[in-house]
Amino acid sequence: MNPARSLTTRLALAFALIAGCAFAGVGLYLYSALAMQITDRDDAEILHKAVRARTELADDDSSAPERWREMARVVSGNEEFGIRVMDPDGTLLLSAGATAMPMPQGRVVAADDAVGADAIRTWHTRDGTKVRGVSMLARLEHGPAQVKVELFQVGASRVALLRAYRWKIFFAVFLGAVGAGVLGFVALHAGMAPLRRIAASTKKVTFSREPLPIDPSALPAELKELAQALQQMVDRLRERYERLSQFSADLAHDFRTPIGNLLGQTQVALSSERSVEEYQALLASNVEEYERLARMIENMLFLARADNARVGLNYAELDLAEELARQADYFELLADARQITIRVDASGKVKADAILLRRAMGNLIANAVRYSPPGAQIRLSGRELDGEARIEVSNPGPGIAAEDLPRLFDRFFRGDPARANSGESSGIGLAIVKTIMDLHRGSVEAESTPGGKTSFRLVFPARPASR
């Protein structure tokens, strides 16, 4: 079928084809049954006339001319039946009724044997008409001891009847198929009305509109599931659209700050003559902004590669105490500058990519150092429990509002709407942590109490799932 045709048309054509095949099968059965019934009826008539012919020949004590007239009456009244009687020498004694080609050589029923259906043979006339008949021997009361009798029927009327019946079947199959196709099209067109309503309603959907403008309860059960699936898809697309819009705005804002700094400082420097020291200070400041841009671009490229499954993992069995101690040493100078201490309490093993694990831990510890007050203590803990490895980073601080926790791992999300600390944080760190845990088929959890403790927990599965 042409895929460009509508589903209604294709199903209607399928109905027509199925109905045509079904009607053709029924017609073929009826035609075969009628043909067999007619053949059985004609064969019974042949056998009846054969018995009558034998009886006439055996009981007839009249003269020869009268005897043959009586024999001719056996086939009289039906122009399709014919009879031929021959003496033992082959001399034709009687030929009455229909004419046909001589019966081909074959079985001749003996005079003392009963004539049954197995004795009936078939041959054809010159024009191809089927002939059925029997060849038998019969005893005479007077005259030759035995004669050969050929009794047959030329099936011209049977052929004509079956031909006419065949055309009626063809016509009935055609009308039935067309009728089924038309009625199927009408029924399907009416049945597809809810789908057309769904399509028309879906065209009106926008990202500013919440539900589909169609009541699922007014739809059939099968289409109700489709409507609900469409609503869920629209909700997901709307959520993705809103995130993408926010992502674009945040990305533009975070790129604008360093670029604005670079542009402003450079314009100021070029507005008048500067000393070598001032130019060097400008270049050093520009390098910091360039490094910040480079980190943002690198982080975004990492997220893009992770989204497209282009980040390969090199799993290794790592010691939790050793890895957490390594991270504590790395951030020791930054923590000392803020008068913050880092405590490590870990044991067990974790199966993970070492580089990605250290990157995720570094992002969490950097955030903890940034938001912890002076004199605070950051706690790094790790345990292997029930086949899973759990790493937790907790610190005191201002905490995170409950309404911000669900979006905490979104890209470029920061709880401060004014983005006052955009120079220190790009809002990608936690998104990278979540991506790294997704790559490990693990999870990241966050708990926070405003003005209290904030904890981030990494959960690694016992064995890396096959990718």
TrEMBL record:
InterPro entries for the chain: CztS_silS_copS (IPR006290), HAMP_dom (IPR003660), HATPase_C_sf (IPR036890), HATPase_dom (IPR003594), His_kinase_dom (IPR005467), HisK_dim/P_dom (IPR003661), HisK_dim/P_sf (IPR036097), Sig_transdc_His_kin-like_C (IPR004358)
Gene3D superfamilies the record matches: 1.10.287.130, Histidine kinase-like ATPase, C-terminal domain
One term under GO cellular component: plasma membrane
Parts of the chain that traverse the membrane: 12-31, 169-192
HAMP domain mapped to chain residues: 189-242
Membrane topology designation: Multi-pass membrane protein
One GO MF term: ATP binding
Chain ranges of the Histidine kinase domain: 250-464
Enzyme class per UniProt: transferase
Record bears the keyword Transmembrane helix: yes
Reaction catalyzed: ATP + protein L-histidine = ADP + protein N-phospho-L-histidine
UniProtKB keywords: ATP-binding, Cell inner membrane, Cell membrane, Kinase, Membrane, Nucleotide-binding, Phosphoprotein, Transferase, Transmembrane, Transmembrane helix, Two-component regulatory system
EC nos: 2.7.13.3
Cellular location(s): Cell inner membrane
Described function: Member of a two-component regulatory system.
Protein's name according to its UniProt entry: Sensor protein
